[in-house]
Amino acid sequence: MNILVSACLLGLCCRYDGRSRPDPNVLALIKTHDLIPVCPEQAGGLKTPRPPAEIKNGRVITSEGEDVTDNYRKGAEEALKLAKLYDCRVAVMKERSPSCSPDLVHDGSFTKTLVPGPGVTAALLKENGITVLGESEIKKLR
């Protein structure tokens, strides 16, 4: 099975802070699945590193006050194209990301407060019938 995966979980330094978040459990999926890396933020034209961003009132705003919603939407569309190209029916995405999180995002106050809701890319993938799991949920694949 082909699985779309947040590139930062595979060790690529594409997070907003220029770092990665390699997850050993996600990396272990390489033994049994074909993993397709994606960084929607980069695919949407944002640089790395970049200011942190959070979702507020349906818009993605950086800590500097810049509205980057269009970049996030473009990146989501690119991630969806990749998922369709490789026939990915499942995506394992970075939790708490304003782009990738399947179910909890920061509330836009930059106080680390989480609220229910998916990131921009996760929402689009789900709307298109792709199962989106966070890295802590990959046991569901076994």
Order of helices and strands: EHEHEEHEEEHE
Largest sheet: 4 strands, parallel
Q: Tell me the domain tally.
A: 1
In order across it, which strands form the biggest sheet?
Answer: 2-1-5-8
Give Rg in angstroms.
14 Å
| DSSP strand count | 8
| Shape category | globular
**Average pLDDT number:** 97
Determine the N-to-C terminus distance. 12 Å
Structural class: alpha/beta
Sequence stretches where pLDDT stays below 50 over 5 or more residues: none
Q: What portion of residues is helical?
A: 10-25%
The helix count comes to 4
Percent of residues in beta strands: 15-25%
What does this structure look like?
- The chain is an alpha/beta fold.
- It has one domain (2-141).
- The chain is 24% helix and 23% strand.
- It has helices at 24-28, 40-43, 69-85, 120-127; strands at residues 2-6, 34-38, 53-56, 59-62, 90-93, 104-106, 114-116, 131-134.
- The longest helix is centred in the middle third of the chain and has 17 residues, at 69-85.
- The radius of gyration is 14 Å and the shape is globular.
- The N and C termini lie close together (12 Å).
